[in-house]
Amino acid sequence: MNPKTSEAIATDPETPETASQLPPELDVVNVTKCFGHFIAVENISLTLKPGTFHALLGENGAGKSTLVKCIMGFHAATHGQILIDKQAQEINSPRDACKYGIGMVYQHFTVVPAMTVAENLLLVRPDTPNLINWKEEYKKLQQFMDASPFKIDIDMPVSQLAAGQKQKLEILKQLYLKSRILILDEPTSVLTPQEADEVLGLLRQEVDAGRLSILMISHKFREIMAFTDEVTVLRKGKFAGHGLVKELTVADMAAMMLGEEREAKEVSKTQVDSSELILEVQNLHADKDNGFEAISNMNLTIKSGEIVGIAGVSGNGQRELVEVLAGQRARTGGEIKVNGEHYTATRKEMARHHVFSLPEEPLKNACVPNMSVAENLALRTFDRPPQAMGILLIFKAMREIATNLIQVFSIKTPSPEALIGTLSGGNVQRAVLARELSADKIRLLIVANPVFGLDFAAVEYIHNQLVVARNRGVAVLLVSEDLDEILKLSDRILVISDGKFVYEGTREEADIVTIGQRMAGH
Q1: Phi, psi dihedral angles at 376 (to 5 degrees)
Q2: 46, 200, 385, 393 from 390: Cα distances, Å
Q3: DSSP letters along 412-479, please?
Q4: Alpha-carbon distance 322 to 281, whole Å?
Q5: pLDDT tens readout for residues 203-251
Q6: CA-based angle 515:521:522, to the nearest 5?
Q7: DSSP state at residue 24
Q8: Which residue has the higher pLDDT, 228 or 422?
């Protein structure tokens, strides 16, 4: 049964909502936003009908975030209008947007961990008095919570909430402000599949009841197909298509995003003799930056010609594990062996054992921002021929190698001499991947969220590169918060929760329900 459209809600005699009670209609009319000579979005129009769930789809850099920031008043549109119920309105700030019932839930949490749920809710109110009558406010807050789609203990400190509860609180903050148009920016990026379905399912009920309209930025086709009514697609800052979700396929939407019909290529794995043990982690312990334990008594093995995928919600020890293996974090206990030898992840050992890695946040962990693209591409090999002769660096050779890698990996940079810190996040990711994947011999490849920030064509390319490496006998450790990526690429799957592995199984045995439960700590 398809969700009711706004017209059905307004005319169905069995529906208690009337047209006047529906959220206002939001129209984006011919909006263009320029930053200097760069056109971020050009002549975009979009209609969010009252009581509907609308998806905004596009590759990274397509202009989605710029467009919604124009709606919210973060950016003033260079041209175009924002209409509320067919009336042009001037929205110069999020406070102005709030006046018209528009609220936004951001990709990253904005709650205050040291405060309770109740205090976080009061904090967002523009009219919170200097002297708070807590008895009266608690009564009102409890009444609000009782009538809300999400139930959270208002006395609970936010620091004790799970990721799914924090995301619910972010939405509740907007409902508390009486927002009737919600803009959601990748709302499920930190949630398990079950948590995502619960949150979007409850919001879908609010939309069906005519209490909310939702505009959601998402890259997840499954969620768009399951929960939304309409989709608008952007490509390179321009309108690329629109339609009713029930009349479109995933292939249709992907074609609009890419500008051409493109069949997703299935990665082709070959049978590999994976008897040789490459990585062995025994009883590993490591701490977080704050001194608390991040990894506890961890054991892990990877053989040649095997991709081992580690799934988990962000913040459960994945980053610390990758940093220990990459030599960026000291372990506090346990032992690591590579090729049967004791391994401490020094640069010399990594070169000798042919270990390569891509940690999270590559600009922070894998690059020197104030050095050029060419210099960063040479960080592995700058002291070896042909890029060095003795103590002399051969910059011409360095530039030639960089120019080739820039072309092969489609790194968008003004020149090899441009500072890597001036590149977009996706192109920094490409540059580091180019450096790590271009080695003549790789024994162990450690990658964390390797395609974050990359477009679909690049994702397909990188995924195939990982499988090609695996097919030629490389041991690959794949850490990803994208469960679809884990399921697509891995031969063996582990789930990490609270610094421990809580699930292990082959790809053929994988059960998404069980994996999701383990990711959530159940």
Answers
A1: -70, -35
A2: 61, 60, 9, 8
A3: --S-TTSBGGGS-HHHHHHHHHHHHHT-S--SEEEEESTTTT--HHHHHHHHHHHHHHHHTT-EEEEE
A4: 12
A5: 999 999 999 999 999 877 888 999 999 999 998 899 999 999 999 988 7
A6: 75
A7: P
A8: 228
Among all chains, which residue has been given the structure tokens 């490459």? 278
Q: In what order do the strands lie in the sheet with 293-303?
A: 293-303, 277-287, 333-338, 341-342
Tokens 């909310």 found at:
212
Structure tokens at 440: 């003549």
pLDDT, position 9: 38
Residue 103 has φ and ψ, to the nearest 5°, of -135, 155
Per-residue CA distances from 454 to 314, 376, 449 (Å) = 19, 19, 11
Q: Provide the edge-to-edge strand list for the sheet that holds 213-217.
A: 87-89, 79-84, 26-35, 38-48, 238-244, 230-235, 53-57, 213-217, 181-185, 102-105
Q: Pull the structure tokens for residue 198.
A: 């619960």
Give residue 306's pLDDT band: very low, low, confident or very high (50, 70, 90). very high
For residues 343 and 357, the answer to whether their CB atoms sit within 8 Å is no
**519: its two tokens:** 């990711």
259 token code pair: 């500008």
Most distant CA atoms of the chain, gap in Å: 85
Per the listing, tokens 């008594």 go with 297
CB 372 within 8 A of CB 416: yes
Structure tokens at 408: 């092969």
Q: Which amino acid is at 466?
A: L
Check whether 487 has a pLDDT greater than 60.
yes
- Report whether pLDDT(10) > 50: no
pLDDT digits (tens, 9 = 90+) for 51-84: 999 999 887 668 898 999 999 999 999 999 999 9
Distance CA 397, CA 261 (A): 39
Per cent of the chain over pLDDT 70 is: 92
What is the rounded distance in angstroms from the CA atom of residue 452 to the CA atom of residue 319?
Answer: 14
All domains of the chain, ordered by start, with CATH?
Answer: 6-101+180-258 (3.40.50.300), 113-178 (no CATH), 264-354+443-455+474-522 (3.40.50.300), 362-440 (no CATH)
Position 16 confidence tier, pLDDT thresholds 50, 70, 90: very low
- Which residue matches tokens 């110069």? 92
**Using one digit for the tens of pLDDT, what is the confidence trace for 388-398?**
777 777 888 88
CA 261, CA 488: separation in Å to the nearest integer? 21
Closest C-alpha among 307, 317, 337, 349 to residue 471: 307
Return the pLDDT at 456. Answer: 67
Q: Tokens standing for 499?
A: 């610094």
